[in-house]
Amino acid sequence: MTRHSGAPAASGLATKAPIAPIAPMASSAPSTPPASSAPSVSSASVAPGRNLYPRYSGYTPRRDGGLAAYETVLARAGFAPVAGIDEAGRGACAGPLVVAAVVLDPAGIRKMPGLADSKLLSPQAREDAYAEVLRRAIDWHVIVIGADQNDATGLHVCNVSGMRRAFAGLRSRPGYVLTDGFPVRGLGTPALAVWKGDRVTASVAAASVVAKVSRDRMMRDLHERYPLYGFDRHKGYVTDEHVRALAEYGPSPVHRYSFVNVTRAAGQANPMAPMDPDDPMDMEDPMDMDLVSTAAPATPVAAAAVGSAEALVALGMSPAGASGENERRMNS
Fold first, then answer.
1. What is the largest CA-CA distance in the chain?
2. Collapsing DSSP states into helix, strand and coil, what is residue 77?
3. Contact by Cβ (8 Å): 62, 71
4. Which of 28, 93, 170, 193 has the fewest CB atoms found within 10 Å of its own CB?
5. Helix/strand/coil (H, E, C) string of 223-248?
């Protein structure tokens, strides 16, 4: 038989046989990847012994750390000093809303054993803790917002605005801010909202004490002007005594008309007038001011308000500390 010149030789057919193993690669029978590829995937994605989300135990507040736990951890992480912000008078239907910002030295917190949530302290214990906080605090600032402003802009808006103003009034620049209950944006500093912060962190507890004592003193002073309501006892909060006084005498100028019980009482009786119409306190709102620690530098705004400040002090309206211990600055 004659072989065509273009036909492959028998040996050539044998050389094409190794092409056959391509066929098994197209079959779908083996579904698992080769065993040798499994270790290479995990070792390539994560380095041996490396945790993508490490937990730094030294930066976690200890349950047995007491009130100084958060401040100690934040100082260790490089965020000292820490400021705490809290308010007093949010739920009252009369009187001002008072917001305080306090900066404490972590080393000095343990030297204040009487520091606690102001609501858990007796009046005398609060006064003692107040004096201790002002003595050991690095810095503090108090904002007072009157009842009329609370009615005009809303309680929560005033609360958040007061926290920003109290923080902005600090002379020192804290590295971290702790607030009680809800977050406050716009502080320009890292912050954390702590649930029940006045019972968990020393800074917030100190701010709670300063705000509460300052406001209680203001309410005792308001009792001198409006003695029929018993402000020196209930501090403007809704009690049976307060409700009866509202029903009998109507609201006073320091009541918050945004509260339903106050507006209801306003339609039942004539509003209570101030005891002294010529009182210089009636010419300006005494419940919308800042209280700053004495080391604050004098400013043209503060100098312009000297006359009003002297009138306030002369009337015994000092909300925090004795006369001369606080600089009064009318809200501009």
1. 139
2. coil
3. no
4. 28
5. HHHCCCCCHHHHCCCCCHHHHHHHHH
Give the burial string for 275-292 (b: 16+ CB within 10 Å, else e): eeeeeebeeebbbbbbbb
Question: Would you say residue 277 has pLDDT above 70?
Answer: no
Phi-psi group of 201: left, alpha or beta (phi > 0 → left; psi -120 to 50 → alpha; rest → beta): beta
**Tokens encoding 256:** 């918050």
β partners of residue 193? 179
CB 145 within 8 A of CB 96: yes
Q: Which residue has the tokens 């009369």?
A: 94
Task: Tell me how far apart the alpha carbons of residues 321 and 127 are, in angstroms, rounded to a whole number.
Answer: 10
Residue at 21: amino acid letter: P
Span 300-322, mean pLDDT?
Answer: 34
In angstroms, the CA 229 to CA 244 distance is: 9
Tell me if residue 8 falls in helix, strand or coil: coil
Under the banding of pLDDT at 50, 70 and 90, the label for residue 200 is confident
- Cβ partners under 8 Å of residue 2, min gap 6: none
pLDDT tens-digit map of 205-241: 999 999 999 999 999 999 999 999 999 999 999 999 9
Q: Give the HSE-up count for residue 55: Cα atoms under 13 Å, Cβ half-sphere.
A: 3
Strands 176-180 and 191-194: parallel
pTM beyond 0.90: the answer is no
Q: Is the pLDDT of residue 27 over 80?
A: no
Look-up of token digits 């309410």 = 219
Residue ranges per structural domain of the chain:
64-214+285-330
What is the per-residue pLDDT across 132-181, written as a single tens digit (0 to 9) for each? 999 999 999 999 999 999 999 999 999 999 999 999 999 999 999 999 88
**What's the pLDDT at 58?**
60
Q: What CATH class does 64-214+285-330 carry?
A: alpha beta
